[in-house]
Every structure is written in C-alpha cells, then in structure tokens.
Amino acid sequence: MPGIQEVFDGTAHKSPGHTQIELENQSSYDRDRDELARLGKKQVLKRNFGFMSMLGFSCTIMVTWEGMLVSGGQYYWVAMLAPPTSRRFLSYITGWLNVIGWQALAASGAYLCATIIQGLIVLNNPTYNFQRWHGTLLLWAVICVAVLVNTVISSLLPKIECVILILHILGFFAVMIPLVYMAPHTTAKDVFTLFINGGGWQTTGLSFFVGLYGNVFAFLGTDAAIHMSEEIANASTNVPRSMITSILLNGILGFSMLIAVLFCSGDITAEAIIETPTGYPFMAIFVQATQSIGGSTAMAVVIVVLGICATIAFVASASRMTWSFARDHGLPFHRYLSKVDPRSSIPLISVLTTVTISCLLALINIGSNIAFNDVISLTINGLYSSYLLAAGLLLYRRATGSIAIPTTYESNPKIVTEGDNVSSQGVINLTWGPFRFPGPLGIAINVAGCIYMIIILFFSFWPPTREVDAASMNYSVLVTGFWILFGIVYYFVYAKRMYKGPLMEV
Q1: Nearest to 243 by CA among 59, 49, 448, 447
Q2: Which of 60-69, 126-135, 415-424 shows the lowest per-residue confidence on average (mean pLDDT)?
C-alpha cells in the first residue's frame, strides 16, 4: 500500500497489483497487528482490553445517568476523507481541537467530582465555609487517583473497568430504588407538559435549544474507545460495538433516571432545590425524598465514586489522543510526548502531561470559577467540532459513492486489497471495514448527526439567560476562537513543516 506519507506529499503511485493478505487462522493479536499495519502504524501498546472491559470504559466515561443528576480517531479519518488540497490542514485542525477537547474533559471531570465532594461537606456541616481553593485541592486529589491507576497499576485498568461497569449499573439501582420508593411524586401532567423558561428567552422553544447543553455533556466522550483502539483486541469490531452498546445502555439508564428525578423532585422551581447551598439540586432532591442526611450522602457518594472512575478513563483517553497526535508531529514537544515507556507499554509522558495540564487549569478556579468554566467549555466546542468535521466529510464520501464495498469481508476474509488506493487526482480510495450502517440508513444517520452537531455548536456559545452581565456571560466563543486561531498560526509558522498527516511507520 502506498505510504500515507506519500499520499500527503503527492508522490503515491498505483501498485502493479493487489497484495492478498491471509487473515484466516490468525490469532486476534496477529489480525489486530496486520490491520494496524494497513494504516501505517506499528504495534507499540499492549492490547489488554476486550469487549466487556472497553464497554465498561465507554459507559463510565459518559456517566450518563450520573450526569442527569449533576488513539488518533477523528484527525486520521479526516486525513483519509478530505480532498487532497485541504487534507493536511483539515486533519491538523481536527486533531488540534480533539486534543484540547479531551484535555478540558479530564479537568472538568475532576472539577465536577471535587465540587460534589464540597457539596457533600456543606450538606453534612452547614457551617462549612465554601472556598474555591478547597475545590482546587480536591481536584488535585482526584487527579492523583487517576494518575495512580493510569501509571502504577495500568496493567489492571481493563479489569478495573469491568468492575466499574458493574458498579455503574448497580449504582443506578442503588440511587433509583430509594428515590422512587421514598420520594413524594408529582403528576405525569407536570412531568410531560410543564415547560419552564428559566432563562427569560422569548419562546420556550428557544429556551429548549439553549438548555440542550446539559444533555450534551452527559453524552460526551463517545469517541473514547477510538483513542484506546491500539490497546483493544479485535479493535475493528470491538470498538464500534462497544461505542454503540454504551450509547444504548447509557441512553436507557440516563433517560430512566431523568424521568425518575422529574417525578420525585416535587416543585422543581422551589427555592430549596434551586438555591441549595450544596450547589447541586440533586442533593436537595435526595434529602426531600429520604428525609435523611446520611441516606442522601450515601446516594451522592455513589455518584462521586463513579465520577472519579470516569475521570480515570478521561485521563487514559486524553493521554492516548495526545500521544497519537504527537506521534504524527502535530504537537509541540512531539519527540517527548510520543514516547512509550518500554516497561509498561503506556505513553507515560503523555499521561503525566495530561494530569499536569488539569492541575494547572485548576489554578484558574482559585481566581474565578467563571473563567475556569469558560476554559473547560472547550470540552464540548473542541470535541463536537472534531466530530462535525469527520462526520461531514464521511457524509460527502458516502453520498458520492466513493467508499468501496468489499467483496465479503466477513464471509471471505482472505481478500483485503492493498493496492490502487490513490486515484490519479490524489483522492484516497477507501473500502468499508467489517462494521458499518449500509446504504440510505448510513446516510440518514450521518445527516441527522451533522444537523444535531451544528445545532449543539451554535447554541453552546449562548449564555444561559437572556439578561447577562460580566459574571453570567458565556465567553466560550472567545476561548474557542483563541485556541483555533492559535492552532492556525502555529500550523503555518511551524507545524506545517513537521506535520504531514498520519505518518507511515511500516
């Protein structure tokens, strides 16, 4: 197969024939290694994850029902899908946005856990003086747990994720059952027909779209399995299956918890819930339901524990994305960030860089939690922008029929062609892998996904209320714009000479 590097430099030529790769009777490891080699990469990370451990990883990284209460991925796809004239630049910007999105997500996950712990302290000790620097110290403590699991006991991470998957499901019932059983219930009419325009917007419909932000955050991190794909056995099928299964499972759990909370919240506009000193209305709902501080604390601890577990996964995925992009010379200090520790087979420097960035971002919280929240808004803006670029280009290639259908990938796995992958116009000819949504169904899903992401990105820059001041203004458009502008300047000043797209290693 012509090297990906050759494709980006415009020097690729057609092979005189097709190389036939024998995949029958190969072990899972050999198959994974050969599939990675087809993409031009060497196997350097250990494949410790299976389907169940990666399902646990994907489910806990989204923490969807909990959220109702409170390795290259996209840039590689863009490199393969984009037109030749813009391939390198679009791939770079996609990777740049994805890296910062994951770094912000690691910091925001730890921040959420830290502030919930502070809320629990307030719940149990009303005289506690809530200080932002306390939250920063607690954030650092959560990050320390994450770095411990991702470095010292990294070999146990797949087993830990399997245990977390069990806790994720059992924790749902541990919170749901006492909440539904003990809380006073409101009427179905109020749950399904009462709409609250708390932001003072002109219409309830506009208020609905502005309020989508919270729902989006509960489903962030869907691409986590992709960035761990070089550590997953049988990645070509286990990665998409774990992603879809986790979305379905978390979607069911999240929607169920949302309905339960709405039925059990009583008067959701009550000041005791909205203005709770804990900072988290779900704690007030727990107290209202159980009439017990101890019981409410136990229910909230479940959420804290699973939040910390999610932060462990955030750090793992963020570090792999950083390592992958650095491996292709996309980041400053890429020579160091792309190193893999030979003893543990993990990108140790990228892991330590990720936790260092989170700890430094936490210092912003001491001065202003508003400024900190604006910085971590890059979580949604960065990740969803990278999703949109990849999905939009995939839709274009789908609609133009420029992705070939293999003869029979599953029933006749012998045939995997490796020649003629670049047209005379420099367009990379692609073939579907073993997992896809075929025909019109796939196109419809891509169209719906692109429309959804455009709506989310547009309204993510809006303030939560119509009347704003300096404290309540949403500055995420400024932060996102600065990061994109910085990336563009860095690309043309320096990175353009180094970044040639995903590099061919084999």
Answers
A1: 59
A2: 415-424
The whole-number average pLDDT for the span 265-294 is 82
Please give the C-alpha separations between residue 82 and each of 17, 348, 401, 427, in angstroms, as whole numbers.
Answer: 25, 32, 14, 8
Is the pLDDT assigned to residue 19 strictly greater than 60?
Answer: no
Say how far apart CA 230 and CA 500 lie, in whole Å. Answer: 21
Query: Helices in 400-475 by DSSP H: which ranges?
Result: 439-460
Q: What is the pTM of this model?
A: 0.80
Q: Which two tokens stand for residue 297?
A: 């604390």
Residue 164 has which token pair? Answer: 């977390």
What are the C-alpha distances in Å from 392 to residues 81, 90, 156, 221, 379?
9, 12, 37, 19, 20
More confident: 158 or 111:
111
What Rg, from alpha-carbon coordinates, does the chain have? 24
pLDDT interval class at 465 (50, 70, 90): confident
Token readout for 6 is 């050759």
The share of the chain scoring above pLDDT 70, in percent, equals: 75
Distance between CA atoms of residues 125 and 143, nearest Å: 25
DSSP symbols for 299-359:
HHHHHHHHHHHHHHHHHHHHHHHHHHHHHTT-STTHHHHT---TTT-S-HHHHHHHHHHHH
CB of 138 closer than 8 Å to CB of 263: no
- The answer to whether 61 touches 316, Cβ cutoff 8 Å, is no
Tell me which residue of 364, 372, 361, 370 sits closest to 463, measured CA to CA: 370
**Between vectors from CA 323 to CA 417 and to CA 484, what angle results, nearest 5°?**
100
Q: Is 44 helix (H, G, I), strand (E, B) or coil?
A: coil
The letter for the amino acid at 376 is: I
Express each pLDDT in 152-199 by its tens digit.
887 787 788 788 888 888 999 999 999 999 988 888 888 888 888 888
Alpha carbons 199 and 468: distance in angstroms, whole number: 10
